[in-house]
Design brief:
Helix content: 55-70%
Radius of gyration: 16 Å
Shape: globular
Order of helices and strands: HHHHHH
Number of domains: 1
Distance between the termini: 22 Å
Number of helices: 6
């Protein structure tokens, strides 16, 4: 959902998952002073700030990484997670704050740090 909203706002596909975001030291020096959140939603801040320089590679991490780590059948693990109330709550806990950041960014409510202006 976050990726879809990001596509609408930025006209490009950006992944907002923490597990495969690699940020170089120079980029960290540049953006860390601008990061306001201290929870998982800081990943959305990184992506917003670096959106023009992020290089993406399409990889379905859930199709191989978690099944490999947990030694589980990928389809079965995916189905269990999609049907799990606990998993849904976990995802909403980080997704809602990230969506809020995207919304605030679009409205120009983040002190001018991030504004991209896709819907100005």
């Amino acid at each position: 959902m976050i990726t879809s909203v990001g596509e609408m706002l930025f006209q490009k596909t950006l992944d907002f998952a923490w597990c495969h975001l690699a940020v170089g030291t120079n980029q960290l020096r540049e953006v860390l002073p601008k990061i306001k959140n201290r929870d998982l939603s800081m990943v959305a801040e990184f992506v917003i700030l670096l959106r023009d320089r992020i290089q993406t590679k399409e990889v379905n991490w859930l199709a191989w990484e978690d099944p490999f780590i947990y030694a589980r059948n990928p389809q079965q693990l995916k189905q269990e997670r999609e049907e799990s109330e606990q998993e849904t709550r976990k995802r909403l806990a980080y997704m809602i704050p990230m969506l809020q950041l995207l919304y605030q960014n679009e409205r120009g409510e983040l002190n001018g740090h991030y504004r991209v202006g896709a819907f100005n």
